[in-house]
Amino acid sequence: MIIVTLVVVLAMGGGGFAWFVVAETDDLATQTAAAEELLATSEGKVTEQSTRAGLSAQIAEARSVLDESVLTRLTTGTGDARESLEAATDAVEASMVEFARGRVTEARDSLAAAQARAEKIYQATEGQGVDDAVRARLQAALDTMAAADTAADTTLSSEDLAELARAADELGTNRSVVTVATEALSDAQDAITCPAPDQAWDPDSGKVPSSALAEIPWAPTHFVRADVLPGLIELDAAYREAFGEHLTINSSYRTYESQASLYDPSSPIAAPPGCSNHGLGLAVDIGGGVETFDTEQYTWLKQNAETYGWTHPDFAEPGGRVPEPWHWESVLARAGL
Ligand SMILES: [Zn+2]
User: Fold this and answer.
1) Quick check: 131 and 191 in contact, CB under 8 A?
2) How far away, in angstroms, is 182 Cα from ligand 1 center?
3) What is the whole-number distance in angstroms between the Cα of residue 328 and the centre of ligand 1?
4) How far is the centre of ligand 1, averaged over its atoms, from the C-alpha of 118 (Å)?
5) Average pLDDT score over residue span 166-193
6) Pick from 92, 117, 289, 299: most CB atoms within 10 A?
């Protein structure tokens, strides 16, 4: 009687255990399927590629456990496989959150650059005759962008992937709107300020910080943008070899105010402020014979200046809009036109 009872209890107990193993196997199968989906969706969306490799290995491990006979699983169980798979899944999910946060941070950084340019142009166009509506549109775009940026800052602490992705996308959209509004304002200013097609309004014109300018060594009251000075020095050295004297520099970088005082709307000689390459530190006016077409000095410069990154622009050529033999520019001056 005792033996019979024991058998019955063992049988019942064993049945319960078998049921538990089946349920546990279902859990592992479900978990594995979810992990496989995560492996697929996480492609290109993690910061640590090794987490996906780890997940892939744990999925293979889980699959091999699931392929084992029920009897084997009865003795070994699936607990280890489930725990390892869960840890690998967590690692991928954490890496995906990090990746999504990185996208938001990147979007915020690129927003900052667009914002800086927009604000510079907004300020530079104040009181310059541009339609107020065009400026108001940029201001509105900047306000909307600032709000999105503040919201994104809060979202950064979220672990919700969809929310993070939405924040990054929204920042990108806002940046585009600000960029378009900035270009519209810049074009509007250009249209009313720079009458000639070879001129381009630039918010930096006449406002180059002194740290970005460099003194011309043989003409110390004159400055050009620091990055174009080495070419000018080399050009001068070659010129000196040919003519025994330095290039005569009569004009170089001009501040916004000095360009404004030179500008005479009834004469094409000086460009309106904001439209001159002198204001960018990329132009010099040269004398010592160069101020006349077809002199030896002018001809020499025409033949040699480009070797050193300097050129005589089309508008100043004989027959150009303003024939100015003396006006020379860095080749960089026309890069943006
Ligand atoms: Zn000039």
Assistant:
1) no
2) 28
3) 7
4) 29
5) 96
6) 92
